[in-house]
Each structure stands twice: as C-alpha cells, then as structure tokens.
Amino acid sequence: MIRASEDQEYYELASPTALPKASGFLWNEKMMIHMNCRGYAVAQFMQPEPAKYSHAPNLEAKTFMQPEQPYYAHHPGRFLYIKDEESGEVFSAPYEPVRVPADQYTFAIGKSRIVWRVECKGIHVEMSLSLPREDAMELWRVKVKNLSGAPRKLSIYPYFTVGYMSWMNQSGQYHEDLQAIVCTSITPYQKYQDYYKIKEFSDKTFLIAERKPAAWEVNQEAFEGEGGIAMPTAVRDQELLSKGDARYETPAAVLQYRFELAPGDEEAYRFIFGPAKDEEQVAQIRSSYLLNTNADGEDGFTAAEREYDRYIREGRGRIEITTPDPDLDNFVNHWLPRQMYYHGQTNRLTTDPQTRNFLQDHMGMSYIKPQTAREAFLIALRQQNASGAMPDGIILHEDAELKYINQVPHTDHCVWLPICLSTYLDETNDYSILEEKLPYADSTETESVFEHIHKAMYWLMNDRDERGLNYINQGDWCDPMNMVGYKGKGVSGWLTIATAYAFNVWAGICESSGHSDKAREFREEAKKTNEVVNQYLWDGEWYARGITDDNVKFGISTDREGRIFINPQGWSMLSGAADQEKQSKLMRAVAEQLETPYGVEKLAPSFTSMREDVGRVTQKHPGSAENGAVYNHAAAFYIYALYAVGEKEDAYRLLRKMIPGPDLEDIVQRGQLPVFIPNYYRGAYRQFPRTAGRSSHLFNTGTVPWVYRCLIDGLFGLQGCAEGLQIKPQLPAGWKEVTVKRDFRGANLHIVMKKEPGLNAIEVYADGAPVADGILKDLKPDTEYQVLVKIPDEV
C-alpha cells in the first residue's frame, strides 16, 4: 500500500482512505501549496503578507497553518469529475468529491511534483501538479485514457475551488479571449488608510485552459444545484454546463470538455491556476506559459516545470547514506534536506519570522547554502538592540511589522545566536563573519558580529533574578508558557540551563577565533550557571521546568499534571549541569514517563485544565502541540543531547521514531507518509492512547536542522571543526557497516564505516593512511577522498 518508487524520486500511496490526510507540499519563494491525497489543498502566496487565492466557503480569519487540518466537503480543493455520456456514470479524481472507489489508485509525492493516477470504470486519469520557480501559480496536467475495449464518450470537468473571496465585492466570469475563468474580489477593509495597502493586491483568481472548453460554470451554487458537491446537478443532468457567471455570488472555476476516445486513446490537458492583479496579467501569463516557445521549441509551461525541478534539487544535503535501514536512507538522502531547504529558502513564507525560528532554520541552511545562512545571521544581528537583546521577530520586508506571537515578549532569542552560528562555523570555518561590522536597531553605533554576540551573552547574564535564574517574561522557547513570569518575577529553568550551554558554545567559538580570555570568562559563567541550576532546579530525579511569579516551582514530582518536561533534561546534558548520576536518573525518568512508540513527549502528564500560573499551554488539548505532544523540535534537542554524552542506543531509538514506519501499522496510526517530519505527533499516550501518534501534518518546524545535526554530529560523527573534519561515529549496536558520502568544504569524501572485533578505539584511514587523531585536515576542494573508519565491535 505504501512504497518508495524504484528511483527513490517518489513516495507512493495506493489508497485514498487508509491514510486520508496523507499529504505532500510544494513551494517557491512566493507561494506554498499543501495537497492531500484526496485532492484537498491549502495554498497561500505572498503580497507581501500571506494571502489566499483558493478560499473556504466562509470568510476566513488570517491564521497560521493549522495542525491536524480538518478537511470537509467544501474545503478548498482541485478536483476532476469524469462522466460517461452514455451510461451517465460519474466518478472523480483524485478521490473527492464523488468518492467512488477506484480499481487502482496511486498518490505519488515527488520532490518537485505531485501526481495522482486513478483507474475507474475503464478510464485511466493522471493528474499532476508542479510550480514555477518564481511565480505564484499552480501548473496542472491532466491525462485521460480509455483502458476499455470499446469507444467511450466522456465529459470531464476540472473543478478548482475559488470559495468566498470577499463580503465587499466578488464575482467571476469566463473570458473567451483569455480562455480563462477570472474571479474578482476586493480584500475587505474598514479604515480608509488601509485602501492604500490593498489597492495593489492580486485579488483575482484565474484558471487558464490550454484547450478551449465546450462549456463552463463560474457560479458555485448553480453548478452544484440540489446534488451538492458530491454529485453536482450540472454534471448529472445537463448535457453542457450553462456558461454562467457569478455576480456577488460565490464563484467557482469549472470547465467542461466533451470528447470520444477509441480504445487505448488518450487526451491531454494543461491548466494554470493562481492569483493575479488584473486581466492584463492573466493575458501575460497565458502568453508566457502556453503560447510562446524558447529556442529549443519548449513552451513556457514545460520550461517552468523543468526549471522548478532544478530549483528544488539545489536543496541537496551534505550527506548521502547507505545503512541497514533503507527507509532511513531514503528519508535522509531525499526528504530531510528538501524540508530543511524549504525552511531556509522561504523563511516559512512570512515577513516576520520568529527570531528563534529564523536562526535555527538558517542553522540548517548552513549545510545547504552557507552563503544564505551567513547573510541571514547578519540580517538578524542588524535588528539587535544595543543592550544585546534580540527582537521577537526578524523583519524581512520594508512594509512588514511584528505580528501574532511576535508581539508577545519572549526571553530566549539571544540563546540561539552562538548555538546556530556554531553549526555555520563547523561547516564552513568562515570565522571572518565574526569581523563583520554591523549597526544596532536602536543605535548609530557599529560593532563587529563578535561584539554583537558578546552583548547578547551579557544580556542573558544580566536578565536574571537574585538567585541567578533567567527571567521568562511571557514565554521562552515554549510560546504559550505565557503566565509564568508576566509579573516580572517568574523564571525559566530551561532557559537558565540553555544559557549555560550557550556560554559554553560561545566560549568554544572564542577559543577558536583567538580570544582565549573571553573563552575562560564564559566557561566560568557557564560553570556558575550550572551550579545555580543544580541548587534551585534539581528535583531529585529530574530538573524542574521553572519557578512562577509566586515562587512556585513546577515540572516537579509533586505536580499532578506537567510533572516532567523534556527540555530541561536534554539541555542539562548539553550544558554540563547534569553529572553522570543525574544523567542516569533523568534518562530513566524520561524513558518511564515521556517515551512513547511515536517518540518522546514534551511533557507529562498532559494538562487537562487551565493552570493560571503556567499559561495557555495548559489550555491546549491534552497531547496536542506543546501540551504533551511528541513535539519533535523538543525531541530533537533531547536526541542531540544523548549523542553529546555518548548515549547512542537511546539516541538512535528515539531518532528513528521521528520518521513514520517502517511498519504499516505505525504509518497508518500516524496517518502520514515518511516525506517530512511534522511539527508534532499526538502525545498523552498514557492518558489517551487511541489518538496518540497522529501526525499534525504541519511541515513548518524547527525540528529538521536539529535532526540533521543529530545525523552529522552524532550518528555518523562527521562534524566539522576549525582543524578539519572530526570523525567520531556512534552507530547503533545492530549496524555492522555503513557508507556515507560527505560533502565538506568543497571536498568529496567516500566513507566506509565498519565494525571490527578486537579493536580498542576507532581507527580512521584517509586514502590508506592512518589519521592519528581522527581529524581529516588540509582537505582540498574538488578533491575526492576514500576514508575507512574501523569501529570496535561491542557485540
């Protein structure tokens, strides 16, 4: 039912009902579309803020992408009705809205293309979706083939939902000169000042057809009639659609084609769907994509598909692996770098990404496009205040402003600067970035990146209470933990621990850049911070999450709900706060209370009612999002920490649980194909086991760069350093041999790792010569190296 294609280019699902929310996504830097296997879609484009061109049937509030998207009959979608003109039978592709079971069905998610193949009633339908590299629009191909032994008379009806565009003004009609349906609206507004913001918006939605249709309908109600979307009256009862329009009525984009197919014959169609400012732009799109050809005789549509595929393939990772786990290989080689590239290339399609997200997403870009990551770090630091404080969001467009959660003060953003920059330095050895001179947001003063990060570290050092614990204000990494410290006294246990880790990381960077005095200073500060952590936050078996405004410690053994949180446990191993005895105790507590078949939960037990001194995290449904889900971002922190202290078996076990499968039962429970890591899987495993494991299907997540770090720094131990490439693999016990291709600073390394009995330590050989310290030095760009790594066999 579920398999990777032989060329590893697609992941295929053979049922629209076994995993009804299975999905994939495509993007460019102006738009994103999330398609599920049944034909439902969530799409947005930037102008400059996110906007819709395919709407719900009611006026939508502007929100982030929603977890566990609730699909419904009139959810925006892309559908094809197929009618046998002789028998009157109707089915639809991909599956919705008619829901006739197919004889054969395939939903294939590719890197640059999503494809459905449906065979039903002797007819084969193939629908495929791609995007251009730059423009905000969807490129669709539809093929219809007669598989039966008799001629067939058919009508097909491409149906692209437009939905409720505006309460002010909406309409739609077919333009014969454009061979397109164009639906028009005006973005609703109240204040006259807003008119000047929306006057240039692309408020039209178009469906351009390459081939002239026999008929069309633009009025959704007239099309559906009494039959509804599942069996529209216009399809069931009319020979031809009515060629209607929509006049302050909900528009739709429906075309009709009538044709006869001899046995084995096929008809092919192409469509373009998207937003536009006016009909002139629609005409330009039609001309550019369907009428004009290049020197090779290729039209714009085909050229755009090819160019988009090339664009997506630019997001290539830095490792290619072959291990005893082929499903892991497929995910790491193809899908993980793709998801990481999406985050870094688009900034999650927002003009004000959260600072922590922006920095961590570009931590991941350090592996794919280091120059892009470098510029991102500089953009962020230009928006730092002279006090050292970082803003809650990074402005990326001149008309942007901080919105939503970025209007709520959080205290963790400075922590991420050295942590994320360290990956860039490991990968590139580009310490010149520290010498770049940058201004501050609130000062004419210009200082080096080195001084900027110094100020960020001093800000963390000073934003503390009398005990030396870091204030939380209205949240740290956990956005909805908004009521722990809003009175100005509450502190974050996790942030205090993370600050100690950040000090140690920065000390290492200082050391490598020739500032040994600063390195000593920050190592001493890390030591002091860890001492404070152990004095005030150790609860006997694990670390507390924080202390409220009213001096109530939480995340401790006496709490009925929210007794243990994952973040303080993992970060205490990274910071050095937890000695060997504490590590053993907290790891046992995590295994007993937080680990599930789907990964490690963020907290447990999940809160079932509001706790007013913690905040709205406790109001979220138990086991969803931050309230006890397997929140993969936090789980990745913990896994990275396990690798940092050499706990490779626990680390790999939890790492593998992040990826659906390989067992079919596991994939079905999660409801997701292994083509991305979601924001979370449902938790509350011990409280509500029936729903545990369900995927959120949100592919926006800071998880992916940390998973990549777990692979490179931990599992395969191929981490960059100032001297070169340090090789310290931590393969799980069952693996005897792996191969890894590693691109590093322009060099191409072909690495074989083998376990051999009788060895006392790891041995590394480069082109046959032993490498005494396990660090490959003086690697030359555009040069290939054969590396053998012999590992003691523990079995």
Automatic annotation (TrEMBL):
Ranges of residues in domain Glycosyl hydrolase 94 catalytic: 317-717
Keyword annotations from UniProtKB, A to Z: Glycosyltransferase, Hydrolase, Transferase
Designated name of the protein: GH36-type glycosyl hydrolase domain-containing protein
Alphabetical list of PANTHER family matching this protein: CELLOBIONIC ACID PHOSPHORYLASE, CELLOBIONIC ACID PHOSPHORYLASE-RELATED
Pfam families linked: GH94_b-supersand, Glyco_hydro_94
This protein's record includes keyword Lipid biosynthesis: no
UniProt xrefs under InterPro entries: 6-hairpin_glycosidase_sf, 6hp_glycosidase-like_sf, Gal_mutarotase_sf_dom, GH65_N, GH94_catalytic, GH94_Enzymes, GH94N_CBAP, Glyco_hydrolase_94_b-supersand
Gene3D superfamilies for the chain: 1.50.10.10, Glycoside hydrolase, family 65, N-terminal domain, Maltose phosphorylase, domain 3
Taxonomic path: Bacteria, Bacillati, Bacillota, Bacilli, Bacillales
Residues annotated as domain Glycosyl hydrolase 94 supersandwich: 74-289
Record carries keyword rRNA-binding: no
GO molecular function terms attached to this record: hydrolase activity
